[in-house]
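Propose amino acids for all 366 sites.
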């Protein structure tokens, strides 16, 4: 192996470790069932999210951030990641061959010619929002993130068919949400809204129109208002420097069209959805649902379908849409299972008529 290939392989390995979320707590095999019964969040016990943010409880030392919403536990050893990927039984194995490859087509003329507010689900967690005369895109990822992770929703259109984006919203730095190759496809003058801690990355892309937000910071252009909110997650791009060198979170977008959209980003369940629902009159909650199995490994990072429905109810949102599914199989469940699993629970709860069931490339006009 020559030097170039060695460093490429090393880089790929480090990215894959970061992508597969191997951070929080080492557990003996016999303790995994007990682990499932633990809450994966820290109760706020009367402290509001806004108070937590104002007190900078999420600001650590040495340039790191903390997750005050997550359950306090030891770090998960690298062996846990290896055990999961190499030795644990995947109960979904019989269904993996059924995973569909769905090339993404978008009716761009209809999107561009529409009035008011629309939301287009592109792929993975990438969502395009048209708000009257401006376009906002969340976590743009247009291609594969690692060569050995299959892309089940490849784009079947040229990027130059998309409308010109005015604002790029980044929820956190994991590679399936912040992809430098995809960001490089935008005009360098595009406005980027991100959490704290990504200065060097965007400067390296020569993207200098940037707004960095801490939890509960607000950006407004005079017509729309974007608030950055807490979530129960973490982030990492380089395992050698460790996790949480940058911040993560969710967004509430009060649109110029008049409706309010909540974008969860990646999050585990936490004791704060009630408060967000009281603070904001949410018309559409876009919640990330995918990579939720096995629970002993994924619960500290991602909600499962039942938790997603509970979060939706606590947010008191009028409608629910899910993203973060159908593109990359990052958990045990097949890529097409999240909407199937969600449908069953929404039906049980009598909420099916409030689910905006968007597939890749589809648009809802609000």
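Proposal:
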């Amino acid at each position: 192996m020559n030097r170039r290939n060695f460093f490429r392989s090393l880089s790929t390995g480090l990215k894959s470790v970061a992508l597969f979320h191997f951070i929080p707590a080492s557990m003996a095999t016999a303790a995994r069932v007990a682990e499932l019964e633990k809450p994966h969040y820290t109760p706020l016990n009367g402290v509001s999210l806004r108070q937590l943010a104002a007190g900078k409880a999420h600001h650590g030392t040495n340039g790191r951030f903390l997750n005050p919403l997550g359950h306090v536990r030891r770090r998960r050893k690298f062996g846990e990641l290896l055990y999961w990927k190499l030795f644990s039984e995947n109960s979904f194995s019989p269904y993996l061959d059924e995973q569909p490859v769905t090339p993404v087509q978008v009716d761009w003329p209809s999107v561009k010619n529409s009035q008011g507010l629309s939301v287009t689900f592109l792929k993975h967690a990438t969502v395009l929002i048209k708000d009257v005369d401006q376009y906002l895109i969340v976590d743009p990822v247009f291609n594969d993130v690692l060569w050995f992770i299959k892309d089940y929703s490849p784009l079947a259109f040229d990027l130059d068919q998309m409308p010109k984006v005015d604002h790029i919203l980044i929820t956190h730095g994991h590679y399936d949400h912040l992809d430098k190759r995809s960001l490089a496809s935008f005009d360098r003058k595009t406005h980027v809204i991100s959490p704290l801690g990504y200065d060097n990355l965007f400067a390296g892309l020569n993207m200098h129109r940037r707004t960095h937000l801490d939890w509960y910071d607000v950006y407004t252009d005079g017509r729309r208002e974007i608030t950055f909110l807490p979530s129960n997650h973490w982030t990492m791009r380089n395992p050698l420097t460790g996790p949480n060198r940058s911040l993560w979170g969710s967004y509430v977008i009060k649109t110029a069209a008049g409706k309010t959209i909540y974008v969860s980003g990646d999050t585990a369940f936490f004791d704060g959805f009630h408060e967000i629902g009281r603070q904001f009159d949410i018309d559409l909650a876009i919640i990330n649902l995918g990579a939720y199995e096995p629970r002993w490994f994924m619960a500290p990072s991602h909600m499962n379908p039942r938790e997603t429905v509970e979060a939706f109810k606590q947010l008191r949102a009028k409608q629910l849409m899910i993203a973060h599914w159908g593109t990359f199989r990052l958990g045990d469940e097949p890529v097409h299972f999240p909407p199937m699993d969600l449908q069953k629970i929404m039906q049980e709860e009598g909420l099916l008529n409030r689910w905006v069931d968007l597939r890749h490339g589809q648009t809802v006009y609000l």
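The radius of gyration is 20 Å. Confidence is low (pLDDT under 50) at residues 1-12, 22-30.
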